[in-house]
Amino acid sequence: MKRLAIIALSLLCLLNVAAIFEKFNYLEPDQFKQWLETSKPMVIVDIQDKASFAAHHFPGSIETNAFPVKTDAEQKQIDPAVAAYKASGNDVVVVCPRGGGGAKRCYSYLKSQGVPEDKLTILQGGVDNWPYRNMLISN
Question: What domains can you pick out in the chain, each with its CATH number?
Answer without folding.
Answer: 24-135 (3.40.250.10)
